[in-house]
Design goal:
The complex is a heterodimer. Helix content of chain A is about 35%, strand content about 25%. By secondary structure, chain A is an alpha+beta fold. The N and C termini of chain A lie far apart (about 90 Å). Chain B has one domain (about 1-235). The radius of gyration of chain B is 20 Å and the shape is elongated. In chain B, about 45% of the residues are buried. The interface of A and B includes residues 22 and 24 of A.
């Protein structure tokens, strides 16, 4: 055997052995160091530390992914209301379409009624411009725990809105109490820990797919979220304890909605109702093949106390369904 | 051989760069891409090609170079000579092909959220599958090399003519191929909606038989082919062209 052949054999064997060992270690330990992984840590999870543990609703949406998605381009949907976007930009200096990478939102209990909302925008912002705009429009600027806190009234009902950059590239928006609360939590001053210590909600996160670019988790049992619903609607809702939504907008729209009920019977009843609605809807789509294709992708499932509703809408079917739902010219006369 | 086994690695690097630069709208996850590459590049092309070229040359090259006399005059049975050369072929091709697969795995699997650890069993299965493919194709083409006058041509016709055709024909013709059983052991499944036409084509080559049937068939083919090659070498008279 020549030396070259020997080196090739030894080198190949070494690569094979090291590769299999590394893969084996990754398999056993359930992961591999970040340098070998092309996917960064799931976005949005870092900002959860600003959401206090008692929050009952947390949501995340990758604005960048949605705006750049093929679906949006093909359907022309999710086009922002230009007037509203323009007003928001004029009032806050934030361009919803270009400045924001993703949004994390949460409903926070501050001891006052109704529950306060907190929205965290992550992206590229012009700090000085935002502060200048706030001052120009009569906002109050103060320093709070090393952060600049801007408070001003917005909208026709003069709702008070506070905003502060809790860190570079992360803008917190919400009521004055909730933004101050977020700053307190992030600096460790508040007694409450952040929502990552809420085992119940973090357990619900397991229903969210790693590739989802939008998700929402709501804990419904014994909290103020149901009180936000109008009239007797809350009383009509089946006995749900939690809802998890995870979706992905790319070439199409795929999502899974998972609801937890109080008992197995409620879960079975809810599954039966959903399957009945799906079947009824399919019966109405004989002359609408694209809409039929959309409904065929709807799956109802789950087990024990969990009910899941999933769908996978391809963009061509969505396009077709929209065109099928448009009235014929004859119908307009 | 370097070009053949290095090609998929280069393609994997290019894919990695393309995804990194975000210039494609293709959303196929890494594990699916890896399965596709193993299926297309390794199972369909590289393994049969190496089997044809190196399996047929075990005896045919010795005859052509007129060096077979030196091997057969050794105090070693002819069958042992063939078996030893076959083992050398198997080790050399494995040590070149399998590291290439491992490199492609680490380059491709993490794309679009793939997990290296979670998909490791698929890699181990693929490595075993490719090793088995090299062994079976090597044994089969060693028989071709020991038996036929134009072994390379015969091998190419079989690997790239007969096998693709036989699996497309209805009935039991596909059972007379190695590819049918080998592809039936592939662990990867194509995602719904991805590359529909290509998926349909690949699915036609997929065996519906149970795993143990495919595995047993491959082992039997390998053993029978190698045994027949040994028998042919032991009993055939190789006339060296003057």
């Amino acid at each position: 055997m020549s030396s070259r052949t020997r080196y090739v054999l030894l080198g190949g064997g070494a690569v094979l052995l090291v590769g299999l060992l590394a893969g084996g270690v990754a398999y056993v330990q359930g992961g591999i160091p970040a340098f070998a992984v092309a996917r960064p840590a799931q976005p949005g999870l870092g900002e959860l530390r600003y959401v206090p543990a008692e929050a009952s609703f947390v949501a995340y949406a990758s604005v960048r992914d949605v705006m750049q998605s093929n679906l949006r381009e093909r359907l022309g949907v999710a086009q922002p209301d230009v007037d509203r976007q323009g007003r928001f930009f004029d009032e806050t200096g934030v361009d919803l379409e270009n400045d924001i990478d993703y949004i994390v939102a949460g409903f926070v209990s501050t001891g006052t009624e109704p529950p306060a909302g907190l929205v965290l925008l992550t992206g590229c912002f012009d700090h000085s411009r935002l502060e200048f705009l706030a001052r120009e429009q009569g906002g109050a600027v103060e320093e709070y725990e090393g952060h600049t806190l801007v408070t001003r009234a917005m909208g026709h009902d003069e709702t008070e809105l506070a905003m502060s950059f809790v860190e570079s590239g992360v803008l917190a928006l919400g009521s004055d109490e909730s933004v101050r609360h977020a700053i307190d939590v992030s600096s460790g001053r508040a007694q409450e820990t952040d929502i990552t210590s809420n085992d119940r909600l973090m357990a619900l996160m397991t229903h969210v797919g790693e590739t989802d670019n939008a998700w929402a988790i709501a804990q419904l049992e014994g909290n103020e979220v149901l009180e936000m619903l109008p009239g007797d609607f809350a009383a009509q809702i089946p006995p749900l304890t939690a809802i998890v939504f995870g979706g992905r907008v790319t070439d199409g729209l795929s999502a899974t909605l998972t609801a937890e009920t109080r008992d197995d019977q409620s879960s079975q009843d809810l599954r039966d109702v959903l399957q009945g609605f799906a079947a009824l809807a399919r019966m109405q789509t004989d002359t609408r093949p694209h809409l039929r294709a959309l409904l065929d992708s709807v799956q109802v499932g789950g087990s024990e106390r969990a009910v899941s509703l999933s769908f996978d809408f391809q963009s061509e079917n969505l396009e077709g369904a929209f065109s099928e739902s448009e009235p014929e010219p004859d119908e307009l006369r | 051989m370097a070009l053949i086994v290095g090609g998929p690695v280069v393609i994997a690097v290019i894919l990695r760069v393309i995804v990194f630069l975000d210039v494609t709208r293709n959303e196929l996850p890494g594990p699916t891409l890896f399965g596709l590459m193993v299926w297309v590049f390794y199972l369909w092309l590289i393994v049969p090609l190496l089997g044809v070229f190196y399996g047929t040359s075990l005896i045919a090259d010795e005859v052509e170079d007129k060096t077979i006399t030196y091997l057969f005059t050794r105090p070693v049975s002819r069958g042992a000579v063939l078996f030893g050369k076959y083992l050398g072929y198997l080790i050399c091709t494995s040590v070149v092909v399998l590291p290439s697969v491992v490199l492609v795995y680490f380059l491709i699997t993490p794309l679009r959220g793939g997990d290296i650890g979670a998909n490791f069993p698929a890699l181990v299965t693929d490595v075993g599958l490719l090793l088995l493919g090299l062994a079976v194709y090597g044994a089969l083409f060693a028989l071709v090399g020991a038996w036929f006058k134009r072994p390379l041509l015969t091998g190419l016709v079989f690997a790239f003519g007969w096998e693709p055709l036989a699996v497309l024909l209805p009935g039991y013709m596909k059972n007379a191929t190695v590819a049918y059983y080998l592809h039936g052991l592939v662990p990867h499944t194509m995602p719904q909606g991805a590359l529909n036409a290509f998926q349909g084509l690949l699915q036609t080559f997929h065996s519906d038989a149970a795993v143990w049937i495919n595995l047993t068939s491959l082992v039997v083919i390998g053993i029978v082919a190698l045994g027949a090659a040994v028998w042919a070498v032991e009993h055939r008279e190789y006339v060296l062209e003057q």
